[in-house]
Amino acid sequence: MAVAYELRCRDCGKRFKNDPLSSCDECFSPLEVVYDMDAAKRTFTRESIAGGPASMWRYQSLLPVPEDYAAPTPAGWTPLLEAPRLAKRIGAKNLFIKNDAVCLPTLSFKDRVVSVALANAKIFGFDTVGCSSTGNLANAVAAQAVRMGFKTYILVPADLEPAKILNTQVYGATLVRVEGNYDHVNRLSSQIAERFHWGFVNVNLRPYYAEGSKTVGYEIAEQLGWRLPDNVVVPMAGGSLITKIRKAFKELVELGLVAEKQVRFFGAQATGCSPISTAVKAGSDIIEPQRPNTIARSLAIGNPADGPYAARAIRDSGGWAEDVSDVEIVSAIQELAETEGVFTETAGGVTTAVTARLYAHGRISPDDVTVSCITGNGLKTTDALAGKYEAERTIRPRMADFEEFVAQHEVRGIVVDDMVSGELVGGEYVR
Amino acid sequence: MAVAYELRCRDCGKRFKNDPLSSCDECFSPLEVVYDMDAAKRTFTRESIAGGPASMWRYQSLLPVPEDYAAPTPAGWTPLLEAPRLAKRIGAKNLFIKNDAVCLPTLSFKDRVVSVALANAKIFGFDTVGCSSTGNLANAVAAQAVRMGFKTYILVPADLEPAKILNTQVYGATLVRVEGNYDHVNRLSSQIAERFHWGFVNVNLRPYYAEGSKTVGYEIAEQLGWRLPDNVVVPMAGGSLITKIRKAFKELVELGLVAEKQVRFFGAQATGCSPISTAVKAGSDIIEPQRPNTIARSLAIGNPADGPYAARAIRDSGGWAEDVSDVEIVSAIQELAETEGVFTETAGGVTTAVTARLYAHGRISPDDVTVSCITGNGLKTTDALAGKYEAERTIRPRMADFEEFVAQHEVRGIVVDDMVSGELVGGEYVR
Questions:
Q1: CA of B416 vs chain A CAs: smallest distance (Å)
Q2: Helical H runs in B292-371?
Q3: 3-state class of B374 per DSSP?
C-alpha cells in the first residue's frame, strides 16, 4: 500500500503538490516532504523493513518515491560499528561509528540523497541533471546518473581535491570548475536550474534529496535494535543532515517503532568554516555567513542553506556544536584509522575530533550511547595526509635486511601498539 | 550445529588437522580446507543463509571458523549489478558485474580472504600478523588487524601506488617496502613467517585465507536467484580466486542449493604479466614465470602460486584466458565507469577489457548469462588515469560564462552520451 506524500512549507505550512520546487512562494522558507502517517503506520513496520533489501530502500515506504519504484543502484545500509578502542582513548564507553565512508556506490552519505533525488528527476521528466558540490555530491550524482541515462552537469569550486575531480570525470559527467567558493557555485547553480530547466538535485529537487538523509537515522535506530541513542554527533556543511536524522527519529517514535527519548544532537564543523557552531555557541539561530578556509572542503559552506534549522535542532535537543582546527582534523583521521580501522576523509576527521572534545569537556557523559556519523572515505582526501608518513627506506629481499629493519623499529618504538600515539590534552589531539 | 573442517592436500589427499600450514609435507602441494558435507547439508540451506547477516558471514557454516565466531568487521555481500549499457557496447545481452570495488571494509575482494585468515590467526594464537601484497591485501590486513588487536607487518614491492601505500600506513601498520617485484616479496615473507612465528595470511594461513574467496561464488549464485551463470570472467594474480569460485559452485551443487551446470571459467590478465593466460593459450598447465611489467600492479605476480590449478580449472571448464595491454586497461576502466557507474582499479580494467574481447572473439555467446568480477576500487589507482582528463578551464560564477561553456561543449560534442566514445575494434578498445 502506497504512502502518499506531498511538499509543505517548513515554516508557514502551506501545502504544495509534488513538483521540482524548493521554497515556499509565500514566505520563501524551504519546502519539506510530509507523508500520510496513518498509511505509514500500516506499511512501515519493523517486519516489513526487515523483509526489505540490505540497502536504504528497505525504508522505501517513507521515502518520496512511488511504491513500485526500483532503484537502479544499491545505496546505504552501512555498518554501525562498535568503537571500543576509540572510546577508550577519548574517555567514552558506549561509542558507535555510523560508517558511511563505505556507503555504496561512491563512498559517502551523499549516495543516499542522490538516490532519492534522481528518482524524482526521472518522475519529473528531466533529461539533464546536475548539482553544485564540494565533492562527494559530485561523485554520487555523476556515478548514479550514468545508470539512469541522464546527461550530467556538475559545478564545483575550482580548487577541489584531485581524487574528487577524477571520481566525477571518470563517469563521463561534464565538470564545470567555478572560480570562487561553494556559495558562489551554489548561487550559479540555482540560476542554471531555472534557466535550462534541469534537475539540480540540491536546488529544485532539494526537498526530495534531503529525505534521503533520513535513512541514516532509520539505520542507526534499527541497528541499535530499534532504540534511539542518547547522542548523535553529525558533521555540518549545509546543515541538512542533522535535521533529517532528527526527523527520522521523530517519525520512528510517531509510528511506534522506537520508544520516545530525548536524543541530543551535536554538530561538528571545522573552525575555518563554522557559521553554524558559532551560532549555537552564541545561543542564536541567526547564521553569520563566513568565508571558508579549511582543509575540510566537503564542509566548506560559508552560508549554509539549512543553518538556522540545524542550530535550532541542536539547541532544542539540549545538544551543542563544536569546531576544530585543521591540525586536529588530520590527527583525528589518523586516530580513527589506527583505533577502528576506518579511513575517513577530512569531514570524518572533523566529526571524530569534535566527538573527542565533547567527551573531554563533559558535554557528553561517558556512559551515554553515542553515535558519531562518519560521512565520507579517506581515499578522496589523501592530500590532507601529505607528509604525515615518511617513506620508509626500502630493504633488499633478504632476511638479514628485514631483521635489521625490525630491530630499528623496535628501538624507535614504532610497532602498532605505539603508533596509536595521539593524546587528548584539554580536548585537543596532540601527537 | 557446527560443520567440521580440516586441511587436506590438494594433490595426494593426505589429511592434516587444523594448523598454520600451507603445503603437504609429503608431496609439497598446497593444502585446502575440506568440510563434513553431510553436516553441511543440514546447516547450509537457502533458508539459513537468507536468515544470516548481509555480509559474507551469511555463509559461515562453510567457512573455516567455529560456529560461534563473530567477525569484528562486516565484509562482502557486494552488489551483483546488471550491466545493460556495457553489454550493449560489447555485444552482450545478459551481462552482470560482481562489484567488489565497493567491498567492505577496504574496497577490494581481499577483505573477504583477510576476514577468514585473521579469524584463524586468532584461533592459532598469533599476536603478530602480516602479508606480502601488491596493495589491496595490504589495505585489508592493515585495516582489519586493528580491530582485532594484532601487530601488523606488511611487505610490498617498493613501487606500489601511493594510495595503496597510504591506505596501509594510516591504520598504523608497519609497512616494509622491498626492492624487487612481488615474487621477491613473497619469498621473503615465507621466510619471515617461519622465523618469527607470525601469522602471514597468504603464507602459513593460506588455506584458510583462500576459503574467503569462495564467498564471491556463493554470492553470485544466491544473487542470481540460486542458479549458476553460464560464464564467469575472473582476474588472475596468484590464480586462487578463480579456483575458489569454482569450488563454491561445486559445493552448492553438491549440497543441492543450485542445479548442476557446466559453468565456463575465463581468466583475465595483463599482457605485461600473463603467465597463466599464456599457459592456457598453449594448452598447458605448466606456468612459465614472467617478470611483470604492467600498470595492473595488483595482478603483477610473475610466478603465481595457484597458476597451475587456475589453468586447469579454466581448461576443464571449457573456458579460456586472455590478456590485454595497458592502453586497453585504461580505456576499459573509463568504459565501465561511463556505462555502469562503477569506478574500478586497473585489475577491473583488465577484467572488463578481457570480457569485451571474449565476446568480440566469439568465445562467449551473446545470450549467455555472464558475470564479470570487478575486484577493486578506482580510487586506489588514480595514477593510471593521469593525463586522461584535461583540466577544464575555470569559469567565473556568472550565467554568461556558463552559457559560453555549454555552447563550446556542445560544439565539441562533449555531452554525456558522446563521452562514451570507446569503440571496440577487433576486440580492442580504441578511443
A1: 5
A2: 307-317, 326-340, 346-360
A3: strand
Is the pLDDT at A416 greater than 60? The verdict is no
Distance CA A383, CA B408 (A): 32
Same domain, B180 and B301: no
Q: Are A34 and A60 in a shared domain?
A: yes
CB–CB of A176 and B402 under 8 A? Answer: yes
Q: Within 10 Å of residue B240's Cβ, how many Cβ atoms? A: 23
Contact call for A170 and B107, based on CB within 8 A: no
Do B125 and B24 share a structural domain?
yes
d(Cα B242, Cα B240) in Å, to the nearest integer? 6
| pLDDT digit string, tens, across residues A311-356 | 999 999 999 999 999 999 999 999 999 999 999 999 999 999 999 9
Same domain as A95, residue A26: no
Among the ranges given (A44-48, A169-173, A316-320, A420-424), the one the predictor scored with the smallest mean pLDDT: A420-424
Q: Is the domain of B190 the same as that of B274?
A: no
Q: Read off the C-alpha cell for A101.
A: 565512508
Residue A428 has pLDDT above 90, yes or no: no
Q: What are phi and psi of B84, to 5 degrees?
A: -70, -30
Q: What is the ipTM of this complex?
A: 0.93
Q: Which residues pair with B130 in a beta bridge?
A: B153, B200
| Three cell numbers, residue B97 | 558485474
Q: Is residue A429 helix, strand or coil?
A: strand
At A5, list the grid cell: 506524500
Domain count, chain B: 3
- The domain that holds A318 is classified in CATH as 3.40.50.1100
Same domain for A182 and A85? no
pLDDT value at A421 more than 50: no
User: Min CA distance, B365 vs chain A (Å)?
Assistant: 24
Mean pLDDT of chain B: 93
pLDDT at B359 over 90: yes
How far, in Å, CA of B280 to CA of B55, rounded? 34
> Per-residue pLDDT tens for B190-233?
999 999 999 999 999 999 999 999 999 999 999 999 999 999 99
> What burial class does residue A379 get, using C-beta atoms within 10 Å of its C-beta: 0-12 exposed, 13-18 middle, 19+ buried?
buried
Instruction: Please tell me which of the candidates B184, B406, B415 has its beta carbon nearest to residue A397.
Output: B184
Q: Are residues A347 and A362 in the same domain?
A: yes
With contact defined as beta carbons under 8 Å apart, do B352 and B374 qualify? yes
pLDDT in tens, A167-180: 999 999 999 999 99
Contact A172 B420 (CB under 8 A): yes
First-to-last CA distance in chain A? 56
Q: Is the CB of residue A74 less than 8 Å away from at least one CB of chain B? A: yes
Structural domain of B421:
392-430
The more confident residue out of A352 and A419 is A352
Phi-psi bin for B125: left (phi > 0), alpha (psi -120 to 50), beta?
Answer: left
Task: Out of A167, A192, A209, pick the residue that ends a domain.
Answer: A209
pLDDT of residue A262: 96
Query: Domain end: B173, B191, B209, which one?
Result: B209
Question: Are A96 and A20 in the same domain?
Answer: no
